[in-house]
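To: structure desk
From: M.T.
Subject: fold request, one chain
Message: Could you run this one when you get a chance? Sequence is below, nothing fancy, just the single chain.
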Amino acid sequence: MLCREAPPEDGGWDPIALRLALAGILRALTARGPAVLVVDGVQHIDPESADLLRFALHLAPPTLRVIAVETPEAYAAYGGKDPHDTRLWVPSEADVLLVPPLHADEIAELLIHHRLPSRMAGRIHKASGGNPRLALAVGRSLADARTPVHHAEALTLSGRARDLARQLLGAAPPEVRETLLLAALALRPTATLVRRAGRPDAEADLAAAERAGLVSLAEDGTVAFTAGLLPSTLVHDACWAERSAGHAALARVVDDPVEAVRHRALATDAPQEELAAEVAEAADLARRRGNSALAAELALLAAESTPGSHAQRRIARLADAAEEAARAARADLAMRAATDLLARDAAPADRVRARLAVLDTAGQGLTGLDEMYVHAMEDSEGDTALRAAVQLRLAVKYVLADGDPVRSRAAAMESAALAASMGDPRTAAQALTVQARMERALGSPDADAVLAQARALETAERPAGIRNAAQILTIRHALFDGRLVDARNQLNALLPLVQRRGSVEDAIELLSTLAEIESRIGPCAAALGHAGRSLAMTLEAGLSPGPAWYALALAETAGGSFARAASYARRSVQASEEEGDRVFLSRSLYALGRVQLVNGDVAAALETLRRVEANERAQSTVDPSMLRWHEELAEALLAHDEVEEALAVLAAVRPVGERLGRTTVLLGLDRAYALCQAAEGRTDEAAELLAGTAARFAEAELPLEQGRALMALARVERRRRRRSAAQTALQSAAAVFERVGAAPWLALATEAPAGPAGEGPVGEEALPALSSLTEAELRLARLVGQGASNQEAAAKLYLSVKTVEARLTRIYQKLDVRSRAQLATALRP
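Reply: Done. Structure tokens follow.
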């Protein structure tokens, strides 16, 4: 390892010379003072290099600190031994750092950093076990294969990822790999099960595999592979006879009838109708148990076990399997079933069912599926019920992928009418729900009436999917209206039922919505917990992470960290752009711009919020309650010294809010308008308006908004030179934030009196002189006072040099100074 060139032909490298040379290098490192030697991946050190290191470190001076980094990869260099037992070269005083595997969320960030699709982060995390090298190999394999992100079957990989898995498995001798193959074939492998299936030394073999870093063993003997790519590679590389024998052996010893049927079906490659019927019954049983993933796998296995002589039965089972996969959010199984079905002489109805299942598992990533919609429309010709179902999916596509709520509303209305004519209340209710959502976005007064029709049509039992149900939209309308306590109570009553009997996507939707509500009213710690669970489930299911990251950005903004909130918002932006999701792109940009504004990065916030404005106008969104970007944009404009444009934004949206009766939206506009008044010098009016706004936010049970209004009031009171009133407002804001657990806002409220968010403290003695400056002017004054040239200030603030010059002239006039030196003096406390 340390000698990468070929050795001399006269007998190889001189080991004494190498030892002395390396010792000399280490002494040279410490000649100028203490030094740190970091050796990464110590599990890969070969014996010759280890011997050199041991000798050189023995002679190294005490000022050399050694850190050994050990990563969760193959331990092939140790021949399956525990690296802690060998300690080939590490002296007793060395620090050994064990680098843990990455979490699924960190894998997603890694993929984004390398411009790889983030949607598959959960599946890639399972395949790699959190090993970044494996994760990147899997991600690049997907990208190189140009496989659509909604086709998760591509995780059955070849190429570099497979080769890496084989290297890992190479640490185990052949007999251990034979034992591991049985564990890989089992659904719930344990040492006892593997031993009973024909491996008498199972415990010893699995212990050796654990030392090699291939599996982990629980106290009860449960076996878990450290990376999902390991069992899939074992199965992939085994011949048919080995796999068949393994499944047959497991079928004889498992104690669960569902698992036994599965193994018997996988042990034979001869389709049998009797066996296929048993597998189909096992799929039904798995569904009743609540194991949707196993039900989907068994439903497809039942179809594939059906003999060719029963062609129509196989087609029907394939259609059932596709729909079962959609319920389990298994895009790979849905695509596999649909591909098989569409290659056969299937009836149009079955073809439509298969295609709709694929569309239903695509999540937010509906771009690139236009052909699927076209064929579904063609096959549904003449079938009213199928046409209603297709139009419902088109209504979703038009708003998510195309950003066209008008067209979405039209498709939803047609779907509802067709379903009603066929006596299909469930589809009609779903279509009316989509219509109501579009009516709300378009600012139609009919939205609540349409939603009421949908609620009336929903059956007494739980609807097919919460995500398309009027019940959840009713809760979201309460969220938009500011009736957050009512919305939270409804969600808390619904969540246990969905967690027990609902789909993965249903649970994700409810958890995200609950996090969004708690991000506004508290407890903020609960919001973080619910958003985190939503993200974990999203990544596990291989769904689009953009919505979950958006929810986590809101939760972090409320109760976590502004820095983490910005990070999650950026990830959501990139994921939404990757998926072509217009709706969540606007939402994630809003979340990002809001945090940038709070952090004082006004130029970036203004750019981001202008993108939100452009996106929302392009989508013809009218109702300001669904995404409250107007007040944030107005404040960003104000902080950028664009008072007139800020007032124009507020003036344009206020009549809409008044017409639609969006009371809490109007309160947010009042907060921003009061800051505009203060910027124009009308500080008395601003203070009165902010005090009233804070009180009305309290009455509406919106504590975080109340706290923001109180903080704005404190800023205005400081400009009025009323220090005691400013301090009282800040203390009131801090008490509100502390009560709901809004940690980052509490930190802002308890800081020393400051200027604009993100700026340093303003000394009390400086307040009289500086109170006449706007926030944008104060920001420029500080930069120039610290020595920045006009060109440097312009670049920092994203302004033209002419704008900086004009603004400086006003600053000089207001502060009665004539030079940069005098300006710097005026800024000092």
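Reply (cont.): The two ends are 61 Å apart (CA to CA). Let me know if you need anything else for the meeting.
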